[in-house]
TrEMBL record, chain A:
One annotated Gene Ontology cellular component of this protein: plasma membrane
Pfam families listed in its UniProt record: BPD_transp_1
CDD domains linked: TM_PBP2
Residues covered by the ABC transmembrane type-1 domain: 67-256
InterPro entries to which the protein is assigned, alphabetical: BP-dep_ABC_trans_perm, MetI-like, MetI-like_sf
SUPFAM superfamilies: MetI-like
Lineage, top ranks: Bacteria, Bacillati, Candidatus Sysuimicrobiota, Candidatus Sysuimicrobiia, Candidatus Sysuimicrobiales
Protein name from the UniProt record: Carbohydrate ABC transporter permease
Major localization listed first in the record, in broad terms: membrane
Membrane topology term: Multi-pass membrane protein
Automatic annotation (TrEMBL), chain B:
Name the record gives this protein: Sugar ABC transporter permease
Major site of localization recorded for this protein: membrane
Domain ABC transmembrane type-1: 74-285
Organism: Candidatus Segetimicrobium genomatis
Highest taxon listed in the record's lineage: Bacteria
Gene3D superfamilies hit by this protein: MetI-like
Transmembrane stretches, start-end: 22-41, 73-99, 108-131, 162-185, 225-247, 267-290
Gene Ontology biological process terms, A to Z: transmembrane transport
Membrane topology summary: Multi-pass membrane protein
Length: 269, 298
Protein backbone atom coordinates (compact mmCIF):
# COMPACT_ATOMS: atom_id res chain seq x y z
CA UNK A 1 0.00 0.00 0.00
CA UNK A 2 2.81 2.38 0.97
CA UNK A 3 4.64 1.53 -2.25
CA UNK A 4 1.51 2.27 -4.29
CA UNK A 5 1.02 5.66 -2.64
CA UNK A 6 4.63 6.62 -3.31
CA UNK A 7 4.12 5.56 -6.93
CA UNK A 8 0.96 7.65 -7.29
CA UNK A 9 2.43 10.80 -5.76
CA UNK A 10 5.72 10.33 -7.61
CA UNK A 11 3.92 10.05 -10.95
CA UNK A 12 1.66 13.02 -10.12
CA UNK A 13 4.72 15.10 -9.25
CA UNK A 14 6.57 14.22 -12.46
CA UNK A 15 3.53 14.83 -14.70
CA UNK A 16 2.57 17.98 -12.80
CA UNK A 17 6.07 19.39 -13.31
CA UNK A 18 5.99 18.50 -17.02
CA UNK A 19 2.80 20.52 -17.46
CA UNK A 20 3.61 23.42 -15.11
CA UNK A 21 7.30 24.08 -15.86
CA UNK A 22 6.86 25.40 -19.44
CA UNK A 23 4.12 27.75 -18.20
CA UNK A 24 6.40 29.15 -15.51
CA UNK A 25 9.26 29.48 -17.99
CA UNK A 26 7.24 31.53 -20.50
CA UNK A 27 6.09 33.79 -17.66
CA UNK A 28 9.74 34.18 -16.64
CA UNK A 29 10.76 34.96 -20.23
CA UNK A 30 8.00 37.55 -20.58
CA UNK A 31 9.39 39.51 -17.62
CA UNK A 32 13.08 39.08 -18.37
CA UNK A 33 14.87 42.17 -19.73
CA UNK A 34 15.51 41.90 -23.44
CA UNK A 35 19.32 41.89 -23.27
CA UNK A 36 19.37 38.95 -20.85
CA UNK A 37 17.20 36.90 -23.23
CA UNK A 38 19.97 37.05 -25.83
CA UNK A 39 22.93 36.64 -23.49
CA UNK A 40 25.32 33.73 -23.41
CA UNK A 41 25.88 32.08 -21.02
CA UNK A 42 22.18 32.55 -20.47
CA UNK A 43 21.26 32.68 -16.77
CA UNK A 44 18.42 30.29 -15.84
CA UNK A 45 17.03 32.81 -13.39
CA UNK A 46 17.29 36.41 -14.67
CA UNK A 47 19.36 38.84 -12.56
CA UNK A 48 16.61 41.40 -12.92
CA UNK A 49 12.97 41.53 -13.91
CA UNK A 50 11.44 44.21 -16.08
CA UNK A 51 8.31 45.08 -17.96
CA UNK A 52 10.38 45.93 -21.08
CA UNK A 53 9.57 42.80 -23.00
CA UNK A 54 5.84 42.92 -22.29
CA UNK A 55 5.67 46.65 -23.03
CA UNK A 56 7.54 46.15 -26.31
CA UNK A 57 4.88 43.61 -27.33
CA UNK A 58 1.92 45.69 -26.16
CA UNK A 59 3.27 48.80 -27.94
CA UNK A 60 3.94 47.01 -31.23
CA UNK A 61 1.82 48.15 -34.13
CA UNK A 62 -1.56 46.54 -34.26
CA UNK A 63 -1.40 44.60 -30.98
CA UNK A 64 -4.02 46.64 -29.14
CA UNK A 65 -6.31 46.88 -32.16
CA UNK A 66 -6.11 43.14 -32.80
CA UNK A 67 -6.61 42.33 -29.11
CA UNK A 68 -9.76 44.42 -29.25
CA UNK A 69 -10.76 42.59 -32.46
CA UNK A 70 -10.23 39.26 -30.72
CA UNK A 71 -12.45 40.29 -27.83
CA UNK A 72 -15.16 41.58 -30.17
CA UNK A 73 -15.05 38.38 -32.25
CA UNK A 74 -15.25 36.27 -29.07
CA UNK A 75 -18.22 38.34 -27.86
CA UNK A 76 -20.03 37.99 -31.18
CA UNK A 77 -19.25 34.26 -31.19
CA UNK A 78 -20.72 33.82 -27.71
CA UNK A 79 -23.86 35.68 -28.74
CA UNK A 80 -24.33 33.80 -32.00
CA UNK A 81 -23.46 30.40 -30.54
CA UNK A 82 -26.00 30.84 -27.74
CA UNK A 83 -28.70 32.13 -30.04
CA UNK A 84 -28.24 29.15 -32.33
CA UNK A 85 -27.15 26.27 -30.12
CA UNK A 86 -28.77 26.88 -26.73
CA UNK A 87 -32.33 26.09 -27.93
CA UNK A 88 -31.00 22.85 -29.41
CA UNK A 89 -29.33 21.97 -26.13
CA UNK A 90 -32.60 22.62 -24.31
CA UNK A 91 -34.59 20.52 -26.79
CA UNK A 92 -32.16 17.61 -26.43
CA UNK A 93 -32.49 17.76 -22.66
CA UNK A 94 -36.25 18.18 -22.35
CA UNK A 95 -37.91 16.47 -25.30
CA UNK A 96 -37.94 13.05 -26.82
CA UNK A 97 -38.57 13.32 -30.54
CA UNK A 98 -38.09 11.42 -33.75
CA UNK A 99 -34.69 12.24 -35.23
CA UNK A 100 -33.15 13.20 -31.88
CA UNK A 101 -30.41 10.58 -32.30
CA UNK A 102 -29.59 11.96 -35.74
CA UNK A 103 -29.30 15.50 -34.34
CA UNK A 104 -26.98 14.32 -31.58
CA UNK A 105 -24.86 12.37 -34.05
CA UNK A 106 -24.54 15.29 -36.46
CA UNK A 107 -23.42 17.55 -33.62
CA UNK A 108 -20.78 14.99 -32.66
CA UNK A 109 -19.65 14.77 -36.29
CA UNK A 110 -19.25 18.56 -36.39
CA UNK A 111 -17.03 18.40 -33.30
CA UNK A 112 -14.76 15.87 -35.01
CA UNK A 113 -14.75 17.66 -38.36
CA UNK A 114 -11.57 19.29 -39.71
CA UNK A 115 -13.51 22.54 -39.68
CA UNK A 116 -10.65 24.97 -40.12
CA UNK A 117 -10.01 23.77 -43.68
CA UNK A 118 -13.47 25.05 -44.56
CA UNK A 119 -12.01 28.54 -44.14
CA UNK A 120 -10.77 28.45 -47.76
CA UNK A 121 -14.15 27.99 -49.48
CA UNK A 122 -15.72 30.30 -46.88
CA UNK A 123 -13.18 32.99 -47.73
CA UNK A 124 -14.23 32.73 -51.38
CA UNK A 125 -17.91 32.88 -50.42
CA UNK A 126 -17.34 35.71 -47.91
CA UNK A 127 -15.72 37.86 -50.60
CA UNK A 128 -18.95 37.52 -52.59
CA UNK A 129 -21.16 38.14 -49.55
CA UNK A 130 -19.16 41.13 -48.32
CA UNK A 131 -18.13 39.31 -45.14
CA UNK A 132 -14.43 38.95 -45.98
CA UNK A 133 -12.06 40.71 -43.58
CA UNK A 134 -14.93 41.48 -41.20
CA UNK A 135 -15.12 40.52 -37.55
CA UNK A 136 -18.59 39.04 -37.99
CA UNK A 137 -17.21 36.75 -40.70
CA UNK A 138 -14.59 35.34 -38.32
CA UNK A 139 -17.21 35.09 -35.58
CA UNK A 140 -19.44 33.02 -37.87
CA UNK A 141 -16.70 30.42 -38.38
CA UNK A 142 -15.92 30.40 -34.65
CA UNK A 143 -19.63 29.89 -34.00
CA UNK A 144 -19.63 26.83 -36.26
CA UNK A 145 -16.69 25.48 -34.23
CA UNK A 146 -18.31 26.15 -30.87
CA UNK A 147 -21.86 24.91 -31.57
CA UNK A 148 -21.10 21.31 -30.49
CA UNK A 149 -19.60 22.47 -27.19
CA UNK A 150 -22.39 24.90 -26.35
CA UNK A 151 -24.97 22.25 -27.20
CA UNK A 152 -23.48 19.56 -24.94
CA UNK A 153 -23.04 21.88 -21.96
CA UNK A 154 -26.54 23.32 -22.28
CA UNK A 155 -27.98 19.81 -22.60
CA UNK A 156 -26.17 18.60 -19.50
CA UNK A 157 -27.18 21.72 -17.55
CA UNK A 158 -30.89 21.24 -18.27
CA UNK A 159 -30.78 17.47 -17.74
CA UNK A 160 -29.43 18.31 -14.28
CA UNK A 161 -32.34 20.62 -13.44
CA UNK A 162 -35.49 18.75 -12.56
CA UNK A 163 -38.38 19.34 -14.93
CA UNK A 164 -40.76 18.91 -11.98
CA UNK A 165 -39.87 22.39 -10.74
CA UNK A 166 -40.95 23.89 -14.05
CA UNK A 167 -44.12 21.78 -13.88
CA UNK A 168 -44.84 22.97 -10.36
CA UNK A 169 -44.60 26.59 -11.51
CA UNK A 170 -47.00 25.80 -14.32
CA UNK A 171 -49.57 24.24 -12.00
CA UNK A 172 -49.31 27.41 -9.95
CA UNK A 173 -50.37 29.45 -12.95
CA UNK A 174 -47.23 30.27 -14.93
CA UNK A 175 -47.21 29.54 -18.60
CA UNK A 176 -44.41 27.43 -20.00
CA UNK A 177 -42.18 30.36 -21.02
CA UNK A 178 -42.62 32.13 -17.71
CA UNK A 179 -41.89 28.95 -15.78
CA UNK A 180 -38.71 28.52 -17.79
CA UNK A 181 -37.58 32.13 -17.36
CA UNK A 182 -38.36 32.43 -13.65
CA UNK A 183 -37.58 28.94 -12.38
CA UNK A 184 -35.25 26.98 -14.63
CA UNK A 185 -33.09 29.69 -16.16
CA UNK A 186 -31.74 31.14 -12.87
CA UNK A 187 -30.57 27.67 -11.87
CA UNK A 188 -28.93 27.16 -15.24
CA UNK A 189 -26.87 30.37 -15.14
CA UNK A 190 -23.58 28.91 -13.78
CA UNK A 191 -23.54 26.17 -16.40
CA UNK A 192 -24.45 28.56 -19.19
CA UNK A 193 -21.71 30.90 -18.01
CA UNK A 194 -19.23 28.02 -18.29
CA UNK A 195 -20.35 27.41 -21.86
CA UNK A 196 -19.90 31.10 -22.66
CA UNK A 197 -16.44 31.16 -21.12
CA UNK A 198 -15.35 28.09 -23.04
CA UNK A 199 -16.64 29.65 -26.25
CA UNK A 200 -14.50 32.68 -25.46
CA UNK A 201 -11.35 30.53 -25.17
CA UNK A 202 -12.15 28.69 -28.36
CA UNK A 203 -12.49 31.93 -30.27
CA UNK A 204 -9.58 33.69 -28.53
CA UNK A 205 -7.25 30.79 -29.45
CA UNK A 206 -8.36 30.07 -33.00
CA UNK A 207 -5.60 30.78 -35.50
CA UNK A 208 -6.18 29.26 -38.92
CA UNK A 209 -9.62 30.58 -39.89
CA UNK A 210 -8.83 34.02 -38.47
CA UNK A 211 -5.62 34.16 -40.49
CA UNK A 212 -7.33 33.13 -43.73
CA UNK A 213 -10.44 35.28 -43.34
CA UNK A 214 -8.87 38.61 -42.37
CA UNK A 215 -6.47 41.03 -43.97
CA UNK A 216 -6.55 44.32 -42.09
CA UNK A 217 -8.90 43.36 -39.27
CA UNK A 218 -6.60 40.78 -37.71
CA UNK A 219 -7.44 39.02 -34.48
CA UNK A 220 -4.53 38.68 -32.07
CA UNK A 221 -3.50 35.12 -33.08
CA UNK A 222 -3.75 36.09 -36.76
CA UNK A 223 -1.57 39.15 -36.15
CA UNK A 224 1.04 37.08 -34.31
CA UNK A 225 1.12 34.38 -37.01
CA UNK A 226 1.43 37.08 -39.62
CA UNK A 227 4.27 38.83 -37.81
CA UNK A 228 6.08 35.49 -37.41
CA UNK A 229 5.63 34.30 -41.00
CA UNK A 230 6.05 37.46 -43.02
CA UNK A 231 7.94 39.81 -40.70
CA UNK A 232 10.07 37.35 -38.71
CA UNK A 233 9.14 38.93 -35.36
CA UNK A 234 11.96 38.98 -32.78
CA UNK A 235 12.07 36.36 -30.04
CA UNK A 236 11.10 38.70 -27.21
CA UNK A 237 7.97 39.70 -29.15
CA UNK A 238 7.08 36.02 -29.51
CA UNK A 239 7.65 35.18 -25.84
CA UNK A 240 5.62 38.16 -24.63
CA UNK A 241 2.88 37.36 -27.15
CA UNK A 242 2.81 33.71 -26.06
CA UNK A 243 2.51 34.73 -22.41
CA UNK A 244 -0.19 37.30 -23.20
CA UNK A 245 -2.25 34.67 -25.04
CA UNK A 246 -1.84 32.05 -22.30
CA UNK A 247 -2.84 34.27 -19.37
CA UNK A 248 -6.64 34.12 -19.87
CA UNK A 249 -6.48 30.33 -20.22
CA UNK A 250 -5.17 29.81 -16.70
CA UNK A 251 -8.07 31.74 -15.18
CA UNK A 252 -10.70 30.39 -17.54
CA UNK A 253 -9.93 26.70 -17.15
CA UNK A 254 -10.14 27.25 -13.40
CA UNK A 255 -13.58 28.85 -13.76
CA UNK A 256 -15.00 26.04 -15.89
CA UNK A 257 -13.19 23.11 -14.23
CA UNK A 258 -16.48 21.45 -13.22
CA UNK A 259 -17.61 21.27 -16.84
CA UNK A 260 -14.41 19.98 -18.43
CA UNK A 261 -15.63 16.39 -18.51
CA UNK A 262 -18.98 17.41 -20.01
CA UNK A 263 -17.30 19.37 -22.80
CA UNK A 264 -15.42 16.40 -24.12
CA UNK A 265 -17.14 13.42 -22.50
CA UNK A 266 -19.71 12.54 -25.17
CA UNK A 267 -18.46 9.63 -27.24
CA UNK A 268 -19.32 7.53 -30.25
CA UNK A 269 -21.25 4.50 -29.09
CA UNK B 1 -35.67 11.71 -15.21
CA UNK B 2 -36.55 14.97 -16.85
CA UNK B 3 -36.87 13.36 -20.26
CA UNK B 4 -39.44 10.87 -19.05
CA UNK B 5 -41.45 13.64 -17.42
CA UNK B 6 -41.37 15.79 -20.50
CA UNK B 7 -42.45 12.83 -22.56
CA UNK B 8 -45.36 12.10 -20.26
CA UNK B 9 -46.36 15.70 -20.53
CA UNK B 10 -45.90 16.37 -24.19
CA UNK B 11 -45.49 13.19 -26.21
CA UNK B 12 -47.45 10.17 -25.11
CA UNK B 13 -50.71 11.67 -24.01
CA UNK B 14 -51.19 13.68 -27.17
CA UNK B 15 -51.55 11.96 -30.47
CA UNK B 16 -50.41 14.81 -32.70
CA UNK B 17 -46.73 15.58 -33.24
CA UNK B 18 -45.21 18.16 -30.94
CA UNK B 19 -43.29 20.57 -33.17
CA UNK B 20 -41.57 22.52 -30.38
CA UNK B 21 -38.35 20.44 -30.29
CA UNK B 22 -38.02 20.65 -34.07
CA UNK B 23 -38.40 24.40 -33.91
CA UNK B 24 -35.70 24.57 -31.22
CA UNK B 25 -33.30 22.41 -33.23
CA UNK B 26 -33.92 24.22 -36.49
CA UNK B 27 -31.48 27.16 -36.03
CA UNK B 28 -28.56 24.79 -35.42
CA UNK B 29 -29.35 22.63 -38.43
CA UNK B 30 -29.88 25.65 -40.66
CA UNK B 31 -26.63 27.28 -39.53
CA UNK B 32 -24.63 24.10 -39.99
CA UNK B 33 -26.07 23.60 -43.47
CA UNK B 34 -24.95 27.06 -44.56
CA UNK B 35 -21.58 27.15 -42.81
CA UNK B 36 -20.62 23.47 -42.84
CA UNK B 37 -22.26 21.52 -45.61
CA UNK B 38 -22.21 24.34 -48.15
CA UNK B 39 -18.49 25.18 -47.72
CA UNK B 40 -17.62 21.48 -47.82
CA UNK B 41 -19.39 21.15 -51.17
CA UNK B 42 -17.81 24.43 -52.23
CA UNK B 43 -14.31 23.16 -51.31
CA UNK B 44 -14.79 20.13 -53.54
CA UNK B 45 -16.21 22.23 -56.36
CA UNK B 46 -13.37 24.80 -56.14
CA UNK B 47 -10.81 22.03 -56.20
CA UNK B 48 -12.13 20.36 -59.35
CA UNK B 49 -13.32 23.26 -61.53
CA UNK B 50 -11.46 25.67 -63.75
CA UNK B 51 -12.29 29.16 -62.36
CA UNK B 52 -13.03 31.06 -65.62
CA UNK B 53 -14.86 28.35 -67.56
CA UNK B 54 -16.33 26.22 -64.78
CA UNK B 55 -15.23 23.07 -66.58
CA UNK B 56 -14.19 19.99 -64.62
CA UNK B 57 -10.42 19.69 -64.26
CA UNK B 58 -7.76 17.84 -62.32
CA UNK B 59 -5.29 20.66 -62.89
CA UNK B 60 -5.41 21.95 -59.30
CA UNK B 61 -4.69 18.52 -57.86
CA UNK B 62 -1.86 18.09 -60.40
CA UNK B 63 -0.44 21.47 -59.44
CA UNK B 64 -0.70 20.52 -55.79
CA UNK B 65 1.03 17.17 -56.18
CA UNK B 66 3.76 18.41 -58.49
CA UNK B 67 4.78 21.08 -55.95
CA UNK B 68 8.10 20.40 -54.21
CA UNK B 69 6.56 20.87 -50.77
CA UNK B 70 3.67 18.46 -51.38
CA UNK B 71 5.43 15.13 -50.78
CA UNK B 72 7.17 16.50 -47.70
CA UNK B 73 3.94 17.97 -46.34
CA UNK B 74 2.15 14.62 -46.63
CA UNK B 75 5.10 12.76 -45.16
CA UNK B 76 5.70 15.12 -42.22
CA UNK B 77 1.98 15.38 -41.38
CA UNK B 78 1.67 11.60 -41.28
CA UNK B 79 4.91 11.13 -39.31
CA UNK B 80 3.95 13.74 -36.71
CA UNK B 81 0.45 12.24 -36.39
CA UNK B 82 1.71 8.67 -36.17
CA UNK B 83 4.14 9.51 -33.36
CA UNK B 84 2.29 12.24 -31.45
CA UNK B 85 -1.20 10.72 -31.26
CA UNK B 86 -0.22 7.36 -29.66
CA UNK B 87 1.99 9.22 -27.17
CA UNK B 88 -0.89 11.57 -26.31
CA UNK B 89 -3.26 8.64 -25.80
CA UNK B 90 -0.76 6.73 -23.64
CA UNK B 91 0.06 9.74 -21.45
CA UNK B 92 -3.58 10.86 -21.37
CA UNK B 93 -4.65 7.40 -20.22
CA UNK B 94 -1.96 7.37 -17.53
CA UNK B 95 -3.08 10.76 -16.19
CA UNK B 96 -6.78 9.78 -16.31
CA UNK B 97 -6.11 6.54 -14.40
CA UNK B 98 -4.02 8.49 -11.91
CA UNK B 99 -6.80 11.07 -11.33
CA UNK B 100 -9.32 8.25 -11.05
CA UNK B 101 -7.49 6.77 -8.03
CA UNK B 102 -8.77 9.92 -6.28
CA UNK B 103 -5.61 10.44 -4.29
CA UNK B 104 -5.52 13.42 -1.94
CA UNK B 105 -5.00 16.48 -4.09
CA UNK B 106 -6.33 14.87 -7.26
CA UNK B 107 -8.57 17.86 -8.00
CA UNK B 108 -5.59 20.24 -8.09
CA UNK B 109 -3.70 17.74 -10.22
CA UNK B 110 -6.68 17.47 -12.60
CA UNK B 111 -6.92 21.25 -12.95
CA UNK B 112 -3.20 21.55 -13.61
CA UNK B 113 -3.06 18.79 -16.21
CA UNK B 114 -6.23 20.11 -17.90
CA UNK B 115 -4.77 23.62 -18.24
CA UNK B 116 -3.33 23.15 -21.74
CA UNK B 117 -6.92 22.72 -23.05
CA UNK B 118 -7.17 26.50 -22.83
CA UNK B 119 -3.83 27.09 -24.55
CA UNK B 120 -3.70 27.61 -28.30
CA UNK B 121 -1.32 25.79 -30.62
CA UNK B 122 0.21 29.19 -31.33
CA UNK B 123 0.92 30.02 -27.69
CA UNK B 124 2.18 26.47 -27.06
CA UNK B 125 4.60 26.94 -29.95
CA UNK B 126 5.90 30.17 -28.38
CA UNK B 127 6.24 28.48 -24.98
CA UNK B 128 8.39 25.66 -26.35
CA UNK B 129 10.30 28.08 -28.52
CA UNK B 130 11.41 29.85 -25.34
CA UNK B 131 12.77 26.51 -24.12
CA UNK B 132 14.28 25.12 -27.31
CA UNK B 133 15.61 28.21 -29.07
CA UNK B 134 19.36 28.77 -29.29
CA UNK B 135 19.55 30.95 -26.16
CA UNK B 136 16.64 29.10 -24.58
CA UNK B 137 16.14 27.46 -21.21
CA UNK B 138 17.26 24.01 -22.38
CA UNK B 139 20.65 25.29 -23.53
CA UNK B 140 20.93 27.40 -20.38
CA UNK B 141 20.30 24.32 -18.25
CA UNK B 142 22.73 22.16 -20.24
CA UNK B 143 25.41 24.83 -19.91
CA UNK B 144 24.78 25.15 -16.17
CA UNK B 145 25.20 21.39 -15.82
CA UNK B 146 28.50 21.69 -17.66
CA UNK B 147 27.36 19.50 -20.56
CA UNK B 148 27.91 22.11 -23.25
CA UNK B 149 30.15 25.15 -23.78
CA UNK B 150 28.39 26.74 -26.73
CA UNK B 151 24.63 26.76 -27.32
CA UNK B 152 23.30 23.86 -29.39
CA UNK B 153 21.05 24.91 -32.28
CA UNK B 154 18.10 22.54 -31.93
CA UNK B 155 15.70 24.18 -34.34
CA UNK B 156 17.48 24.02 -37.67
CA UNK B 157 16.84 22.37 -40.98
CA UNK B 158 20.22 20.67 -40.71
CA UNK B 159 18.60 18.51 -38.07
CA UNK B 160 15.04 17.94 -39.34
CA UNK B 161 14.57 15.10 -36.85
CA UNK B 162 15.15 17.57 -34.00
CA UNK B 163 12.64 19.97 -35.50
CA UNK B 164 10.15 17.10 -35.69
CA UNK B 165 10.92 16.11 -32.11
CA UNK B 166 10.31 19.71 -30.98
CA UNK B 167 6.93 19.78 -32.75
CA UNK B 168 5.92 16.40 -31.33
CA UNK B 169 7.01 17.42 -27.82
CA UNK B 170 4.96 20.61 -28.05
CA UNK B 171 1.90 18.75 -29.34
CA UNK B 172 2.30 16.15 -26.59
CA UNK B 173 2.47 18.88 -23.97
CA UNK B 174 -0.52 20.78 -25.34
CA UNK B 175 -2.99 18.18 -26.59
CA UNK B 176 -2.64 15.36 -24.06
CA UNK B 177 -5.08 17.26 -21.84
CA UNK B 178 -7.99 16.77 -24.26
CA UNK B 179 -7.33 13.02 -24.47
CA UNK B 180 -7.08 12.85 -20.68
CA UNK B 181 -10.41 14.61 -20.17
CA UNK B 182 -12.20 12.38 -22.71
CA UNK B 183 -10.78 9.23 -21.10
CA UNK B 184 -11.51 10.43 -17.56
CA UNK B 185 -15.13 11.09 -18.53
CA UNK B 186 -15.23 7.54 -19.92
CA UNK B 187 -13.62 6.04 -16.80
CA UNK B 188 -16.20 7.69 -14.57
CA UNK B 189 -19.00 6.02 -16.51
CA UNK B 190 -17.67 2.58 -15.61
CA UNK B 191 -19.48 1.32 -12.50
CA UNK B 192 -17.17 0.67 -9.53
CA UNK B 193 -18.61 -2.82 -8.96
CA UNK B 194 -16.96 -4.09 -12.15
CA UNK B 195 -13.48 -3.57 -10.76
CA UNK B 196 -14.59 -4.78 -7.34
CA UNK B 197 -16.07 -7.96 -8.84
CA UNK B 198 -12.84 -8.58 -10.72
CA UNK B 199 -10.92 -8.16 -7.46
CA UNK B 200 -13.24 -10.61 -5.67
CA UNK B 201 -12.46 -13.17 -8.36
CA UNK B 202 -8.76 -12.68 -7.72
CA UNK B 203 -7.75 -10.32 -10.51
CA UNK B 204 -4.76 -8.14 -9.76
CA UNK B 205 -4.68 -4.42 -10.44
CA UNK B 206 -3.04 -4.87 -13.84
CA UNK B 207 -5.38 -7.67 -14.88
CA UNK B 208 -8.38 -5.56 -13.92
CA UNK B 209 -7.09 -2.60 -15.87
CA UNK B 210 -6.21 -4.70 -18.91
CA UNK B 211 -9.24 -7.01 -19.08
CA UNK B 212 -12.04 -5.03 -17.42
CA UNK B 213 -11.36 -1.29 -17.60
CA UNK B 214 -9.68 -0.98 -21.00
CA UNK B 215 -12.34 -2.89 -22.98
CA UNK B 216 -15.08 -0.81 -21.33
CA UNK B 217 -13.15 2.33 -22.15
CA UNK B 218 -13.13 1.55 -25.86
CA UNK B 219 -15.74 4.16 -26.95
CA UNK B 220 -13.78 6.90 -25.21
CA UNK B 221 -10.47 5.70 -26.61
CA UNK B 222 -12.04 5.66 -30.04
CA UNK B 223 -13.34 9.22 -29.69
CA UNK B 224 -10.02 10.47 -28.35
CA UNK B 225 -8.13 8.85 -31.22
CA UNK B 226 -10.48 10.24 -33.87
CA UNK B 227 -10.49 13.79 -32.44
CA UNK B 228 -6.74 13.90 -31.93
CA UNK B 229 -5.87 12.42 -35.31
CA UNK B 230 -8.16 14.80 -37.19
CA UNK B 231 -6.77 17.74 -35.23
CA UNK B 232 -3.23 16.55 -35.99
CA UNK B 233 -4.02 16.66 -39.72
CA UNK B 234 -4.83 20.36 -39.20
CA UNK B 235 -1.58 21.10 -37.38
CA UNK B 236 -0.53 24.62 -38.30
CA UNK B 237 0.53 27.23 -35.74
CA UNK B 238 2.83 24.96 -33.69
CA UNK B 239 4.79 24.12 -36.82
CA UNK B 240 4.89 27.71 -38.04
CA UNK B 241 6.33 29.00 -34.76
CA UNK B 242 8.90 26.26 -34.26
CA UNK B 243 9.97 25.43 -37.81
CA UNK B 244 8.47 27.96 -40.22
CA UNK B 245 8.09 26.25 -43.57
CA UNK B 246 11.17 24.09 -43.03
CA UNK B 247 8.80 21.36 -41.94
CA UNK B 248 5.92 21.67 -44.42
CA UNK B 249 2.57 20.25 -43.26
CA UNK B 250 -0.79 19.98 -45.03
CA UNK B 251 -2.63 22.80 -43.24
CA UNK B 252 0.45 25.01 -43.60
CA UNK B 253 0.53 24.42 -47.36
CA UNK B 254 -3.21 25.19 -47.50
CA UNK B 255 -2.39 28.52 -45.89
CA UNK B 256 0.59 29.27 -48.17
CA UNK B 257 -1.32 28.42 -51.35
CA UNK B 258 -4.16 30.67 -50.28
CA UNK B 259 -2.26 33.63 -48.79
CA UNK B 260 1.11 33.56 -50.55
CA UNK B 261 0.33 32.13 -54.01
CA UNK B 262 -3.25 33.46 -54.06
CA UNK B 263 -4.68 30.25 -55.41
CA UNK B 264 -7.94 29.33 -53.64
CA UNK B 265 -8.27 26.39 -56.03
CA UNK B 266 -5.04 24.64 -55.02
CA UNK B 267 -5.68 25.58 -51.37
CA UNK B 268 -9.09 23.91 -51.74
CA UNK B 269 -7.40 20.84 -53.20
CA UNK B 270 -5.35 20.66 -49.98
CA UNK B 271 -8.51 21.18 -47.92
CA UNK B 272 -10.20 18.32 -49.77
CA UNK B 273 -7.14 16.14 -49.19
CA UNK B 274 -7.33 16.85 -45.45
CA UNK B 275 -11.07 16.08 -45.50
CA UNK B 276 -10.49 12.78 -47.29
CA UNK B 277 -7.67 11.79 -44.92
CA UNK B 278 -9.85 12.65 -41.93
CA UNK B 279 -12.82 10.69 -43.25
CA UNK B 280 -10.71 7.62 -44.01
CA UNK B 281 -8.96 7.63 -40.65
CA UNK B 282 -12.33 7.93 -38.87
CA UNK B 283 -13.65 5.00 -40.88
CA UNK B 284 -10.55 2.94 -40.05
CA UNK B 285 -10.83 3.67 -36.33
CA UNK B 286 -14.55 2.84 -36.28
CA UNK B 287 -13.85 -0.38 -38.19
CA UNK B 288 -10.81 -1.48 -36.15
CA UNK B 289 -12.46 -0.66 -32.85
CA UNK B 290 -15.87 -2.11 -33.74
CA UNK B 291 -17.00 -4.41 -30.92
CA UNK B 292 -16.77 -8.05 -31.92
CA UNK B 293 -19.81 -10.30 -31.61
CA UNK B 294 -20.58 -11.30 -28.02
CA UNK B 295 -18.72 -8.42 -26.40
CA UNK B 296 -20.40 -6.34 -23.74
CA UNK B 297 -21.10 -2.71 -24.61
CA UNK B 298 -21.48 -0.25 -21.84
Amino acid sequence: MRVRLVGIYGAALVIGTWVAAPLLLIALAAFTPRNILYEWPRPLWPRAFSLDTMLFFLRSTGVWASTLNSVVVAGLTIGLAFLIAAPTGYALARYRFRGKGAVQLSILVVKMFPATVLSIPLAVAFIRWGLYDTLIGVAIVHTALSIPFVTVIVTSVFVGISYELEEAAMTLGSNRLRAFLRVTLPMAVPGLAAAAIFTFVLSWNEVFAATILTLDHRTLPALIVDSVISAGAPLHFRFAGGFFMVMPAVVIIFLIRRYLLTLWGVTVR
Amino acid sequence: MAIADAEALTGVTRARVNWTPYLLVLPTLAFLSVFFIYPMAQAISLAVTDPPTGALTWAHFRRMSSDLYFGQAVRFTLIITAIAVPLQVALGLAIALLVNTRFRGHTVFLYLTALPIGISDLAAGMIWLSILTERGYLNAALQRLGLIEQPVVFLTLERPEWLLAAIILTELWRATAIVMVILLAGLQLIPKDYAETAAVFGAGRWQTARHVILPLLRPSLQTALIIRTILAFQLFATVVTLAGRQIPVLAGETYFWYSLYRSPSVASAYAVLILLLSASITWIYLYVFAPKAGEVRL
